[in-house]
Every structure is written in structure tokens, then in C-alpha cells.
Amino acid sequence: MPDDNARDPERDEALSRSVRDGAAYSVMTGAGESYLSAYAIHLRFTEPQIATLASIPPLIGALAQLFSTWLHRRWRIGRGRIILAGALGQAMSWLPIMLVPLLWPNDQVAALVLCVIAYQVFGNIISPHWPSLMRHLVPERERGRYFSRRTRVTTLVGFAALIAAGGVLEVFRTHTDAMYGFLLLFALAAVARMISGYYLSRLPDRSPRGDDIKYGALPLIPVWQAGIRSTPYARFLFYYAGMCFATAVAAPFFAVHMLRDLQFTYLEFMAITAASVLVQFLTLNGWGRVSDAFGNRLILAITGWMVPFVPLLWVFSDNFLYLLAIQALSGLAWGGFALSAGSFFYDLSGDADMAAPITTANVTNALAAFAGAQLGAAAVLWMPDWAHSDHAWSFEYPLFGVFLLSFAARLAVAVIFVPVLKEVRQVRRASPRRVIFRFTRFSVFSGVGFDIASVWRPREQRRPVKAGEESGGD
């Protein structure tokens, strides 16, 4: 564990590199991954094919984490080498993705699914190792401030990339062909991931030699069995997996509804997508303050009751401004849910090696999301029979039935699991007044400029802090 009493210039430089890695990675996801569904719609994929694209690659990618962890433990391959290989492989996978219509014009569905599988596999082999590497790199007393700062920078960069990408697609759609816009964006995504890989390659691995070898096989089956005995970790795992299942029922089809049913432009699609990201960024500090003061279980409960109503609200209107407001509400709910879930997971894991529980959770969540997406795809096939019919439950759009199914599933998960979640830390007693005060008492942009400037300033300007000297922060 890093020494908390003195600054380590090498470690500080490594942490700045990690922020740069995150910024480059956010460019890839904002300008590339966020538009894969729009790309599939442009290639005229059907709803079940889009559900397949959204569910099978993440599932196989999550299973690749088992192989990645096995490589590290069985063959003692260093975390740094695995992380670098994954980043470079993910960067290279964008090349076949962007060339699918040219190389496989008659098998575009199978080709794109296979290419995105490769993208997910390379990305997921990193997942078990990066948190373990960072756990030994970031001093425990600085983790909250550091990861909050890193998240602010990466979210802001990803938001900017998302907006710029939507503008690029709209320009090409209007003047030539949107396909050229997708080619440009995916090429940018590949370059951004290569830059990310460069900074990842310069992160030192300070894990103790032999760390986590003693944990043996991944505890997938034991954790699932523990769910029957209702251990805190298993209860949380099944709650999160259940919400992944319920969310995946409708998640692949929101883009279809906007671009195909509502005929939104790419700018409108971008704005709807960006609204959620922006609100998550704006409320990050607020949720963090509530988490620090009152624990993560409270936020999981609040947002757990908010999340189910997002797909329900999509049914009431197709007005652009209305949907923009709904996505803002979605960002508020999912921002708090994701932040508290990640912190709750770390609280439950304690000081244990992170690779095994992370892989267990990711595989479980991917299986749940796959099952949910398949249920949604099956529902899409019979929902059109109800749309525009004389039945009392007919829908204006066939996908509305899928949104309602997702609402019912999310609500059921909240009803079952929210009451049994228990806080694992000693926290203050919460009241509505205190929670609202904590949530609203922050300045959103107060630290962002400093965050970005401090990441890119020259190394010689960083002055080591002597032992016992107070360090600045956000």
C-alpha cells in the first residue's frame, strides 16, 4: 500500500498519466462506441439484430475476463502487459468495424457482431487488472478525491466527443453520406484508444509479487450459491444484475425508436444522448457528498426507485423537448446509481484482491443483460401485433410495449431488493432535509479547470509535498 505520509513524484506522475488515459478512452467511447447502435441502424439492422449486437458481444467480452485472470494467475503474465495488449487490440478492432460494408457487404450483421465481439473481448481483458493496479497506486486516503477528479475530466471529455461526433454525422448526412461520418469517427476512436494505450503502458505495477495468486479459481459458483444464504455481497450482486437484466430489455431499442420511429436527425439523437451524460456530470459531486455523509445504500435506494420510471415516461410523448427532460432525469438517476454501486462494491470487497470479485460481478451482470436483451428482442417480434390494433392495450409504436415491460421488470427488482440492502459503513442518520442540503451544496465547475490544467502541466512544475504538509485538492 502506498505511503500516505509523503508525496511520491513518480506515483503522482503515474496518476496524471492515468487521467490522460481516461480522457483518451472517453474520446473513443464518446465518438465511437456511443454511435455503434446508430451505425447498425444506418446499415438497416432489424430490432432483433440490434438486440443481438447489444447483448452477445458484452457477454462474450465478460467471459473473456475469466481467461484474462487465468493468464495472470496461471502463467504469471504481468498486469501491465495484459492491459497494454487489450488496449492496442481494442484500438485495432475499429478497423474491421468501419470497413464492414466494404469487406462483407452480404454478411454485414454477422460481420459487425463478430467485430464488436473482438472489440469487447480486448476491452474486457483489461477489466480485472486495472482496478487492482490502481488500488496499489492511489493512497487510500486520496482515493475519493482522485477518482472524483478523474471522473470529472473523463466525463467532460467524453461529453465533448459525443457532441462533436453528432455534429460530424449530421454534416455528412446532409451534404454527402453519413457513412463517411462513421468512417471518420471510428478512425478517431482507434487513434484515441492508441493514445490511451500509450499512457497505460507507462503506469507502474506496484502490486506485491504474487498478489492475488492465492485466491485460486474465480468464485462464480460460490457467490451464486451464497445468494441463497443472502450474504450482503450476493444480495447486492443480484440486485445490480437484476437491474441490468431489466434495463437491457429496452436499452437496445431507444436508439431505434429515435432514429427509425421518430425520424430524429443525428443532432437530435446526440442531444438526447448527451442530456443524460451532462446531468450525470453536473450531479457527480452532489451524489458524492451524499455518499460520504450518509452511505451508499441510501443512494441505491433513492435511485433504485427512480430508474424504473424512465422507460415508462418515454411512452407519454414523442416531443423532442419532453424526451430531453426525461433523459436529464435518467442522467440524474443513473449517475447516482452507478456512483453508489461502485462505492458499495468497494466497501463490500474490503482489502481483498479485486480481480476475482470484479470478474464475478461483470460476468453475472453480462449474463443478466444478455437474458434481458433477448427477452426484449422476443417481445419486439410479437408487440407489432398489438400496435395500431383495436385491442384496449394497443400502442402508438410497437416499441412502447417493450418500454413498459422494462418498467415492470425494473420495478420488480426494486421491490424485491431495495428493502434488503444494508449499509456496510458507519454513517450519519439521514433526513430528507440533510440529503437535499448535501446534494445541492456544491459548485459543479469549481474544480474542472484545475483538474484539466493539473493533468497536462509540465512535470517540473509539480512540487513534491513534504511529510506532514497539507496537500491541496478538490
Computed over alpha carbons, the radius of gyration is: 22 Å
- Main sheet: strands, sense, barrel: none
Structure classification: mainly alpha
Percent of residues in β-strands: under 5%
Query: What's the N-to-C terminus distance?
Result: 23 Å
Q: Order of SSEs, N→C? A: HHHHHHHHHHHHHHHHHHHH
Record field, number of beta strands: 0
CATH architecture group name of the largest domain: Up-down Bundle
Shape: globular
Total helical segments: 20
CATH class assignment of the largest domain: Mainly Alpha
CATH homologous superfamily classification of the largest domain: MFS general substrate transporter like domains
- Could you say what the CATH topology of the largest domain is called? Growth Hormone, Chain: A
Total individual domains: 2
Rounded mean pLDDT is 83
Quaternary structure: single chain
